[in-house]
């Protein structure tokens, strides 16, 4: 394990306000340029598939060393995105931190059963939410991430029935 200092962090977040808070706090922590935001599950899978193919070869899209994944999104939810990532050899070991506004034990258990690395509840109060992001950003300073390697061409957009 290593802590790649310039590994991209992929934020999958449909709420513009939440995404802005992440960007602001990551910028303050000196890692704003590493934060790449997509706004839904389909866009996340398209981005990751692009990383795994032509975009990676052209150096256009950095492969993330960490994925921050909202659970409740229109279209593909975070659980489905996580399940597809963890079935894919290219992203099986990429750490994924689930983000949600609920502390439902059932959802927490489901996220971990699918392979989530961590689960962070987004507080409703804006100040508490900003504080949580700042703490998460600080946590990333000590987190040991796997070495980021360019994956072989594995399509992560496959349906739930594919393995």
Notes on the structure:
The chain is of the alpha/beta class. The chain has a domain of 110 residues: Rossmann fold, CATH 3.40.50.2300. It has six helices and five strands; from the N terminus they run E-H-E-H-H-E-H-E-H-E-H. The chain has a five-stranded parallel sheet with strand order 2-1-3-4-5, sandwiched between helices. Strand 3, helix 4 and strand 4 form a beta-alpha-beta unit. Helix 1 packs across helix 6 and helix 2 runs parallel beside helix 4. The longest helix has 17 residues.
Beta content comes to: 15-25%
Order of strands in the sheet with most strands: 2-1-3-4-5
> Biggest sheet: strands, sense, closure?
5 strands, parallel
Q: Write down how many β-strands occur, each being a DSSP E stretch of 2 or more residues.
A: 5
Mean pLDDT: 79
* Helix and strand run: EHEHHEHEHEH
In CATH, the homologous superfamily of the domain at 13-122 goes by the name: Response regulator
Cα radius of gyration in angstroms:
15 Å
CATH architecture of the domain at 13-122: 3-Layer(aba) Sandwich
Output the CATH class name of the domain at 13-122. Alpha Beta
Helix content: 40-55%
Number of helices: 6
Salient structural properties:
6 helices; five-stranded parallel sheet; 40% helix; disordered C terminus; Rossmann fold; 163 residues; globular; alpha/beta
